Amino acid sequence: MCGIVGYIGKRQASPILLDGLRRLEYRGYDSAGLALSNGRGIEVLRRAGRIENLRKLVAETNPRGEAGISHTRWATHGAPTDSNAHPHRDQSGRLAVVHNGVIENYQQLRDWLKTEDHKFSSETDTEVLAHLIGYHYDQSEEQDPVQRLVGAVQAALPRVKGTYGIAVMHEDAPSVIVGARLGSPLVVGLGADEHFLASDVSAIVAHTKDVVYLNDYDVVTITRDGFDVKHLEGGEARVTVSRVDFTEDDAEKGDFPHYMLKEIHEQPNSIRNAMRGRLSRDEATAILGGLQMTPQELRQVDRIILSACGTACHAGMVGEYLIESLARIPTEVEIASEFRYRNVPTTKDTLQFVISQSGETIDTLAALREAKRKGIKCLGIVNNVASTIARETDGGIYIHAGPEIGVAATKSFTSQVAVMTLLSLLLGRIHHLSSTDGLELIDELEAIPDKITDILKQAAHIKQIAEKYAHVDGMLFMGRLINYPVALEGALKMKEISYIYASGHPSAELKHGVIALVKPELPSVFIAPHDAVFEKNISNIEEVKARKGPVIAVATEGHPHIEKVADDVIYIPRCPSALSPLLTVIPLQLLSYYIAVARGCDVDKPRNLAKSVTVE
Ligand code: F6R
Prior knowledge:
Layout: E1 3-8, H1 13-24, E2 31-37, E3 42-48, H2 51-61, E4 67-73, E5 88-89, E6 95-100, H3 106-115, H4 125-139, H5 145-156, E7 164-170, E8 177-182, E9 187-190, E10 195-198, E11 210-213, E12 218-222, E13 227-231, E14 241-243, H6 259-265, H7 267-275, E15 279-280, E16 285-286, H8 295-300, E17 303-308, H9 310-327, E18 331-335, H10 336-339, E19 350-356, H11 362-373, E20 377-382, H12 388-392, E21 396-398, H13 411-429, H14 435-456, H15 459-469, E22 474-479, H16 484-498, E23 501-506, E24 524-528, H17 534-546, E25 551-556, E26 568-572, H18 581-598
Parallel strand pairs: 17-18, 17-19, 19-20, 20-21, 22-23, 22-24, 24-25, 25-26
Antiparallel strand pairs: 1-4, 1-10, 2-3, 2-4, 5-6, 6-7, 7-8, 8-12, 9-10, 9-11, 11-14, 12-13, 15-16
Helix pairs in contact: 1-2, 3-4, 4-5, 7-13, 7-14, 9-13, 9-16, 13-14, 14-18, 15-18, 16-18
């Protein structure tokens, strides 16, 4: 999604802005731009396409300025052209704005501004916002330009319907940048003789670890020496300085060719981090203090709803199996974008979880707000601790996976599944799960990271299989029970990064329609670990083979007879079926990764996709 970086200090701003934008590249964008203020005016440079195009323009023109705002745009209103790229100027040409989010009433505002003789040079909602703030600035009688600019922002934003994270500069007030947010994240970075604004902390973590995460309706003014946060309607706002707990290296690729591959390999550790300090052998249970619920309150829960989008939703589907089998509490997964517009029946003791890596996905956030509106207790399973969802939930479980930069979610999936296993263990133990069963699950859980390391050692073998099938147009993914969501996840990974059409199905659904597709050119991936439905999966594989469909199987080691029916086999170590998704998903992540690489796809930045979907 769009990214914002702002800087004011003693250094030249443009290298800092360009570096910050590069660190936000993973979020997805299709044009980039910056505005610099040097006391003599504001210079705006914008380019469609990659940040590299903007970098070249900056190198050619060498603009100077120790204050600036910059942006990567993901087109919503108007095509990704130079003129639609941000920053946008107001009617006077002396004010510049960058904006994340969507202004829903931009057409009405634009029509009205036209009656005030405003002329527009782009098709964007952001240019309307720039003109609106400029209009209020020009109308103001305030003499001090800084107060006048803050006042103009405070006057303009209440007229706007929609979401925004913005940064604004005016030629009259070269010593400040003004920022504001509603529904779109914005963070202030505190440095010595310099301050930053960013839509994501990873853009500025190389410069400072002390940050202030702004709240909705905050309006911030940053200068070289300080910052001041006001409420949109006036008055001081609540400010908390936080310390960022990851380094710039955590957000770098290191020796890996892609973030996605790095993050796949991080999974033994990210799962350890998800479990760290949360397992009690003495009581054979999990300790999840973040839920902020007593055992009595948890025991009363009679229904659980899990809401999420995409990969997080697949993790939720695994969670449904886990909670129902370990704790016997009826659980349902509701796709967040559907939940927000449905009227899902609930009970007085329903507990809802929203699951989100970014904590900013707009549909998931809306599902959370809808649940709260209806009085449902709603907790979060979130990676980004500073995110809107983390702040708006009444408690929850952080997954502690560290920054996930690759657009395709990998380590967040396994960490979400790991914490939902902990949740199921805890709920199971306050109901009827025995301490022996609880301890056995703990032993098996603790063994998972090393088993993932063993699977990762097979990367070369998986790469070979990937290269064999890289030319295909389509792929089917089949799994049963707790591995059905893994089939969906495998298909999603394949689609999003390799652009091969793929779909996931419960294996037995084959003969209800999907089998019509089977042919020698269409490989099927079967997730067939050695569990209660293994033999059923073998029958399904045989049905595919009988129709000359190639089969790749993910199977448990020690059962080599699967090689008699499948063309290619990737083995996973033995584990209880409840934990198998933590292992079976790894070969599928690697398979999609290597197929995408073999097809020459941009793995970390797949076309049309954004890391965090903050607009509906
Ligand atoms: C898939 C993917 C998306 C996200 C979805 C939810 O690889 O990345 O499907 O899982 O957009 O995102 P979060 O978890 O940030 O709410």
